């Protein structure tokens, strides 16, 4: 369970992994997390140029880029880089990451921190994408994605899970 909490009044985003709710104590617990302030440059304090207020255990990225949020998709625009996970990441990392959970020594395995994107010359309107998927694809074309995790899937991009939050499935990015 990854969980991201945005506190706009306090001005930060908290990102937790392996988050779970303990009902008997009415408490949330997590095995790790990070805090990133919205008025910062978004970089963790352990990387060159990072904001000293931004700290955590996610090796450099902050919660604001973890997933495509439904409010951004519905507004028709995501105005920031996204994070993706890849199946085989290199054990080394590059800026803006402060570490890697990759295990590969293969020189062709991408390092965490690498930015990938859809070429600007690709005409996204040619593809049979849902309106929501097109918003995400345009963000990947304009801002790209930073490889920030190792996963079991070839490539993984997360979107806000509104169904798990009890709000029903609010987005449609799948074409079946």
Q: Would you give an account of this structure?
A:
The chain is 10% helix and 29% strand. It is mainly beta. The strands form 4 sheets. A 5-stranded mixed β-sheet has the order 7-13-8-12-11. Strands 1-2-5-6 form a 4-stranded antiparallel β-sheet, with no helix packed on it. The protein has a two-stranded antiparallel ribbon with strand order 3-4. A hairpin with a 4-residue loop joins β3 and β4. The protein is globular, with a radius of gyration of 17 Å.
Entry keywords:
176 residues; mainly beta; 5-stranded mixed β-sheet; 4-stranded antiparallel β-sheet; 2 helices; 13 strands
Mean pLDDT: 86
Structural class: mainly beta
Distance between the termini: 27 Å
Give the beta-strand count.
13
Largest sheet: 5 strands, mixed
In percent terms, what proportion of residues is strand?
25-35%
Topology (SSEs and partners):
Elements: E1 3-7, E2 12-17, E3 20-22, E4 27-29, E5 32-37, E6 55-56, E7 67-68, H1 70-75, E8 82-86, E9 90-93, E10 111-112, E11 115-116, H2 131-142, E12 145-150, E13 155-159
Parallel strand pairs: 7-13, 8-12, 9-10
Antiparallel strand pairs: 1-2, 2-5, 3-4, 5-6, 8-13, 11-12
Short description:
By secondary structure, the protein is mostly beta strands.
